[in-house]
Amino acid sequence: MYSQKVRRMAADYSHSAYDIISDSAALLELSTVLNASTDLDFILGNILLSSMGKLMVSRGVVLLDADDQIYRVRSVKGFSSELMESEFTIPVGWNHVVAIPSLKDSPDPSLRHFAQCCESCALDIIIPMLLEDRMVGIIGLGKKITGKEFASADLTFLESVAAVAATAVRSALSIENLRLVNRRLDTKIQEMNTLFEISREMNTTFIPDDILRILSYALMGQLRVLRYAVFTQNDKGLEPVVVRLPEFTPNPAHQEALEELRETIVFSDRRAPEKPHEQWLFDAGLTIVLPMMSQHRLRGVLCLGERVGGASFDRPELEYLHALANITISALENARLVKDTIDKQRMEQELSVAKTIQKGLLPKSIPTPDLYQIAAINESSQQVGGDYYDVITISDHEYVLAIADVSGKGVPASLLMANVQAALRTIAPLQLPMPEATARINAIIHTNTAADKFITFFWGLLDTQKHTFTYVNAGHNPPYLVHADGSMLPLQAGGLILGIMQQPPPYSVETVQLRSGDAIVCYTDGVNEAMSKDMEEFSDERLQKLLTDHLALSADDLLQCIRDEIVSFTLGAAQSDDITMLIVRRCS
Are the CB atoms for 121 and 73 separated by under 8 Å? Predict the structure, then answer.
């Protein structure tokens, strides 16, 4: 009896010793295999195979620490691959094997959810992989095929496996992260090289269509986007310049909504339209709506449809897309600025030519009748203007003097001024009665001008033998007849300004006598309405005082005196209008 008991105890001891040796050998072999590899998937697969094979388990899973309290499934055996990459929140750390049923009554809802998922997958126990008291991962195993419970030796073996695995997993994770960083760095370098090439190509052309074509190639080639639309800002607002979305038909209200865009909108399964103006973008099948900013101002909008294959944009791709949009809008802005510069240079050249032509329309030299002085000046507020004066010799003692002011400034006014000059020089030599001649000039101007254009016009015939001046004033600032005694007479007889009516009421005419020392001073409203920096007008009163105070001056000196006073008065302010003056003076 005693001998049988001794033999049975010896047999049990022999079996336990064998298991210990076997477990040690298995752990040594596992450690050798794991430490010989840096492939995380290989390491995790061997952890499961060793544990499941040793303990005859048909199901196993490994979760790794992905972020703060977040654990992600990285390897499965006996489960569908759909379980891969599933994430669970586990707010605690374990230092021993944990039975799944014990978690079902946890006060933490995330642990209860984890326990329910484990039970639905028929997992029975979880074994923490610890490294320096930190849980780097979890091994989960189902029940044994035999239906037996896990023995204490089994749990000891699993904890040893987890301890051996923890170091290998941490090393493999570090290497995997390093590889991931290197891949991202390589991708970034490739993206930067691509963006550099795109930027170089875009900035070698100043044609917007070519820049948008390069953008299209980048969207299709790098990002696999075939459906897109591009809006850019112009004088009318935000308008589409490229549309490759057949169902995308924005109306003015939509475009106004896009003008308020300041942040990128990314639609996905998790991101449905949040605001009313976003719904039509979502309904049009857009996945990304991206503002194109320049100097903190919205200069365009890039709208993208779904990618080929339906893949969503990850963070690096969104960063690449933003960089591409910035490069594109900068290139478009540069192209616009270059075009504006070229247009401005061309306009300046054309204005320079127009200025030369316009100066040629004014008298090249002013006649010097016996006993009379004539002086004139014309200064445009822009390169070309709408003021005009003329002195035309009719005979050895008859001269036509004229001054006119076309509404507006710049090129349109200068063109209309040329019409006045042509009409006057055609009609004046005919020596028609001045009212009739004025009516004919009016008819020509009315026929050749728009309804919103008109001309104030004053002209007269100087007879140096009779010392008379016969004039018609068509709505112009009344010139002053300044007598030698200081008295002053405004010359107002005439009628309507030119160009308003095809057949205005008949113009009246007046003849005045010029005595020795008398002067006629003609001017445009750029003189009396010249503005100071304090927005004060030069005024008729100031002009009249100048004339009476300096009546003894010659025509040239009087004109220069008025000009100097205007310059002094407007010092610090821009010239607001054309300045033209014509002075005729009888010397004796």
Answer: no
- CB-count burial class (<10 Å; 0-12, 13-18, 19+) for 235: exposed
**What is the distance, to the nearest Å, from the Cα of residue 535 to the centroid of all Cα atoms in its chain?**
36
Sign of CA dihedral 561, 567, 570, 575: positive
pTM tops 0.85, yes or no: no
**Which of 349, 429, 348 is closest to 392 using CA atoms?**
429
pLDDT tens digits, one per residue of 391-409: 999 999 999 999 998 876 6
The second-level CATH assignment, the architecture, of 362-586 is 4-Layer Sandwich (3.60)
Q: How far is CA 82 from each of CA 30, 39, 75, 122, rounded to the nearest angstrom?
A: 28, 22, 11, 16
**Quick check: 312 and 268 in contact, CB under 8 A?**
yes
Give 327-359 pLDDT, tens digit per residue: 888 888 888 888 888 888 877 776 666 666 667
CATH architecture of the domain 203-338 equals 2-Layer Sandwich (3.30)
Which residue in 301, 283, 305, 284 sits closest to 293, CA to CA?
301
DSSP helix/strand/coil, 181: helix
- Burial (CB count within 10 angstroms: exposed 0-12, middle 13-18, buried 19+), residue 137: buried
Helices (H) and strands (E) in the chain, counts: 13, 22
> Residue 71 forms beta bridges with which residues?
65, 88
d(CA 533, CA 544): 22
Q: How many residues does the chain have?
A: 588
Domains 13-176 and 203-338 share a fold: yes
Distances 510 to 397, 427, 485 between C-alpha atoms, Å: 19, 19, 22
Domain chopping of the chain, boundaries: 13-176, 203-338, 362-586
Q: Measuring CA to CA, which residue among 362, 420, 427, 360 is closest to residue 391?
A: 362
- The string of DSSP letters for 193-251 reads HHHHHHHHHHTT---HHHHHHHHHHHHHHTS-B--EEEEEEETTEEEEEEE--TT----
pLDDT band, very low/low/confident/very high, at 260 (cuts 50, 70, 90): confident
Q: What's the mean per-residue pLDDT of the chain? A: 84
What's the CATH architecture for 13-176?
2-Layer Sandwich (3.30)
